[in-house]
Predict the structure.
Amino acid sequence: MATKAAAAAVDFTRIYTTLGLGKETIAALQAFRKRHTDAQRIHGQYASQPTTVDFSHYRSVLKNQAIVDEAEKLFKDFKPVTYDVNAHIKAVEAFETKAVAKAQETAEKIDDELKALQATLANIEEARPFDDLSCDDVGKAHPRIVEAVETMVKKGKWTVPGYKEKFGDLSLM
């Protein structure tokens, strides 16, 4: 009974959205849930059916008593076949281990992304505002900009290629 209450208390839509599960994992969970609900429905149908057979009723209705006697004998001699469910249990356990491994892999990826985002956020918070930056600071951060400016000055180029096309010509003459 505790498992039914636990299964009813699980909010699968919240699990799908908050855990960031992969498409394969979500599809496998949904397929498993569908098979489980189908099995519960079928079990409920068969459990509600009567399990006893009233042979005296059939003796009073049918004229051929030999058929009723034979059916009663077959019914009493019937022994249900037992199935070895170990193969199914192993398949479920294999699926479970795969799902757990995928979940752990996803959790590790999310943890790595969170660490990277935390580092980026800390870097942004510690960065100086643009108003406080000087050309020397930008040059120290990106030396290739200084090199590009020096080569442009040596060649006598005083305009930045593509600037007029992007921002227009601001000269008055």
User: Anything to note?
Assistant: Residues 114 and 142 are 27 Å apart (CA to CA). The longest helix spans residues 86-126. The chain is about 75% helix and 0% strand. The chain has a mean pLDDT of 85.
